[in-house]
Amino acid sequence: MAFFSASILSFSTLFLFMLGIASAQLSSNFYSSSCPKALSIIRGAVNTAVSKENRMGASLLRLHFHDCFVNGCDASVLLDDTANSKGEKTAAPNNNSLRGYEVIDTIKSQLERQCPGVVSCADILAVAARDSVVKLGGTTWTVPLGRRDATTASFNDAQNNNLPPPSLDLRGLISAFNKKGFNGQEMVTLSGGHTIGQVQCTSIRPHIYNDNNIDPNFATSLKKNCPSTVGDGDTNLFPLDQTARVFDNTYFKDLVNKKGLMHSDQQLFNGGSTDSQVNTYSRNSAKFFSDFGSAMIKMGNLSPLTGSKGEIRTNCRKTN
Ligand code: HEM
Ligand SMILES: *[C@@H]1O[C@H](CO)[C@@H](O)[C@H](O)[C@H]1NC(C)=O
User: Fold this and answer.
1) Predicted pLDDT of residue 1
2) Which residues are within 8 A (CB) of 2 and not within 5 positions of it... i.e. 6 or more apart?
3) Residue 42 is part of which domain span?
4) What is the mean pLDDT of residues 14-26?
5) Ligand 1 mean position, distance from CA 20 (Å)
6) Residues 210, 124 within the same domain
7) In the chain, what percentage of residues exceed pLDDT 90?
């Protein structure tokens, strides 16, 4: 009898413990009964947007990164400024650079029609990032779900240090990622996101004019559309690698050939501790792909709001 009640006690303790875990952790089947079409709706809208404009896949991947590195993956990056609170959109790393907000709005309104108030904006960002990589020919991974949306955003936290600037050296890049719980290898892996998308002249100017670890012919060709004078051609765009419409390992091949676009990119292959990993990825795209999937899952787990924290926004740009 004593044994019996003790086992009932430990059973219920275990049950409560599991409930606690369930509310603190994400799970890939989170919407399987509450919104079974959620994933196919997001995939459909991402495919449409990327078919219309290839670069949008890159923009959606970056949106998830910039969300997660500033106070966790909570869709704070999507909140518009209000009279009382300046959000993250105009902070230096994002202003006139981060894009894709309209695609998230489209996805959100489709989801609200299908299952109102159920799918968070933070989860939309995580799934859209994965679907973008798949659509552009890259790898896939299973996205843990159940993030909830922040009710606040922070201009200062997006402005200061959380998002690494392209001026960083290898040490600074590793340290920026260490602060988020990643090691140097995971930093290199995630930097492989620069296999897709475009970069503005302002972001490459210091590298192409001041650094000597760049292929001279490549530098000359970039200088044609990116003049040395600040204010001249600042917003002109350049592909982030030689095959920037496709998610592949060309970014790493380019680094080996001293054809990185930004200072921070070429730092990954500059005679330091990360050279061997860049070499490996340049020869083994399967290795890059599988590491990238794991690192993206880890990035998506950065401080999510779960359980009763935060809310499920109706409109990703505004708190409810
Ligand atoms: C390692 C440190 C990183 C630095 C210093 C960095 C910096 C930048 C900068 C400055 C731009 C171009 C902004 C512009 O000129 O408008 C950019 C673009 C981009 N970044 Fe990063 N980034 C880093 C890591 C990442 C990570 C981890 C990802 C995703 C996994 C990522 C994905 C992208 C993508 C896809 C673009 C192109 C976006 C588009 O075409 O709209 N970056 N990054
Ligand atoms: C963002 O960019 C606009 C130019 O498009 C500029 O007027 C504004 O001052 C910038 N915001 C911040 C906070 O720097």
Assistant:
1) 31
2) none
3) 27-163
4) 48
5) 36
6) no
7) 92
Does residue 182 belong to any structural domain of this protein? yes
Q: Are 273 and 190 members of one domain?
A: yes
Give residues (CB < 6 A) around ligand 1.
Answer: 55, 58-59, 61-62, 65, 97, 99, 164-166, 173, 187, 190-191, 193-194, 196-200, 203, 240, 262, 264
Give the C-alpha distances (Å, rounded to integers) separating 162 from 93, 172, 177.
Answer: 10, 12, 9
How many whole angstroms separate alpha carbon 110 and alpha carbon 235? 33
CA of 90 to the centre of ligand 2 (A): 6
pLDDT, one tens digit per residue, over 146-188 is 999 999 999 999 999 999 999 999 999 999 999 999 999 999 9
Domain count across the chain? 2
Helix (H, G, I), strand (E, B) or coil at 232: coil
Query: Which DSSP state fits 99?
Result: -
Q: What pLDDT, on a 0 to 100 scale, did the predictor assign at position 290?
A: 98
Centroid of ligand 1 to alpha carbon of 107 (angstroms): 23
